[in-house]
User: Which sequence fits this backbone?
């Protein structure tokens, strides 16, 4: 009898282990089945290590990249190929975070229930517009940098261009240094005055009398023993004029008053120094180091500050959307998920001041037919090189809900160089709405 009981317990234990094992396997299959099916050794979906099924379509429905057993076929238009290659990925996997890798499960028509159920694969429609991407590459005018445009209501990325670029159908002779790097998601750059949005957010929320204060600028000042220079003497200003005039003395003084810990905290909570993903593609974290002598200049966006264009785009998207930021996606229709990045009241104050900056400083006549709020940045990078030129912001027209970032390496004036590029891209983006 005892032997029978021991056998029964053993059998029950084995059964429990089998059921547990099946449970673990099923969970792994549910979570990782697509990756297993898309393993490059799977001859049903790969040929010589290259995907052979499925298509990636533009927002307009144009085939940007089609996979066949004979190889990958990009668009017939060279400008389309060069402006979208960093979104799509190249044939040999040198570009990380490309759509060809992100959406493999769908391209090979994998499902948890049916597995890989067709040899032709599926078409994946992207949110990226081929026409807008070409307009963005044209606006860069042969210069290195990154341009991104997103629908700040849905999170759909309408355009993501990185330069230098190359033709994925070329013979490889046009692939220059840095061409495989997606600067929109993977590179941090000295931000200059666009970082003043971070300093301003911290000041709005932690300095009670900020709007009652008057700030003074003689063209230069000393903050905590550090000499700060401005483009010219701004005189007496309120905070909204200090942003519109992009007064370095004001924002250096604010950073010193806020302190390095508060500045670092806001850089993190606003997403500047944290990493996030776009449909699984990792966005690099920026950097804030404002200790000691670097503190005053850090509030201006100089010193050791580094910002990734995608993170700055997410920040201005939140400002545009009352503090809520949708989860970014390269897929048509967006993800539907969102998070609160900024308190609603703070976002509205930032939006008003950025709109005022356009009216007072940048000139609405330079953005005909558009209603935008923006901030420029002219970031000194040293070494005798021209500054990095930034222009970031969003449309205040609810029927045209786009946010944008333009960063041109060694582009000179943010207002003139990046601002003109932003206008060209936004004018083209209107055709999508």
Assistant:
């Amino acid at each position: 009898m005892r032997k029978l009981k021991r056998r029964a317990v053993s059998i029950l234990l084995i059964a429990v282990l089998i059921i547990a094992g099946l449970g673990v396997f099923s969970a792994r299959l549910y979570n990782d089945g697509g990756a297993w099916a898309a393993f490059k050794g799977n001859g049903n979906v790969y040929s010589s290590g290259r995907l052979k099924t499925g298509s990636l379509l533009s927002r307009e429905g144009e085939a940007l990249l089609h996979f066949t057993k004979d190889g990958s076929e990009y668009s017939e238009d060279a400008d389309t190929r060069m402006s979208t290659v960093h979104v799509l990925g190249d044939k040999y996997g040198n570009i990380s975070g490309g759509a060809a890798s992100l959406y493999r499960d769908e391209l090979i028509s994998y499902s948890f229930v049916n597995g890989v159920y067709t040899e032709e694969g599926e078409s994946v429609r992207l949110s990226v517009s081929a026409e807008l991407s070409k307009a963005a590459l044209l606006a860069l005018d042969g210069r290195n940098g990154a341009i991104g445009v997103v629908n700040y209501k849905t999170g759909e990325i309408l355009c993501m261009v990185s330069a230098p670029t190359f033709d994925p159908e070329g013979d490889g002779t046009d692939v220059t240094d840095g061409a495989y790097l997606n600067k929109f998601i993977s590179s941090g750059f000295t931000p200059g005055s666009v970082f003043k949005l971070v300093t301003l957010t911290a000041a709005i929320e932690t300095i009670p009398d900020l709007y009652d204060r008057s700030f003074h600028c003689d063209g230069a000042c000393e903050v905590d023993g550090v000499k700060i220079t401005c483009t010219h003497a701004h005189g007496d200003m309120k905070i909204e004029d200090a942003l519109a005039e992009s007064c370095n003395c004001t924002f250096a003084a604010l950073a010193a008053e806020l302190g390095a810990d508060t500045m670092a905290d806001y850089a993190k909570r606003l997403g500047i120094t944290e990493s996030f993903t776009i449909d699984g593609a990792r966005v690099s974290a920026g950097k804030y180091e404002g200790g000691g002598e670097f503190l005053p200049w850090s509030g201006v966006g100089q010193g050791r500050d580094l910002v990734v264009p995608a993170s700055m785009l997410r920040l201005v998207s939140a400002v545009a959307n009352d503090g809520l930021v949708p989860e970014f996606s390269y897929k048509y229709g967006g993800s539907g998920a969102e998070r609160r990045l900024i308190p609603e009241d703070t976002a509205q104050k930032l939006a008003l001041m950025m709109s005022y900056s356009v009216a007072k400083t940048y000139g609405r006549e330079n953005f005909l037919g558009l209603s935008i709020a923006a901030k420029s940045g002219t970031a000194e990078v040293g070494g005798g090189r021209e500054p990095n030129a930034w222009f970031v912001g969003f449309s205040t027209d609810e029927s045209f809900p786009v946010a944008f970032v333009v960063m041109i390496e060694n582009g000179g004036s943010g207002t003139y160089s990046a601002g003109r590029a932003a206008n060209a891209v936004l004018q083209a983006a209107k055709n999508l709405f």
About this structure: The domain at 186-432 is CATH 3.40.710.10 (Beta-lactamase).
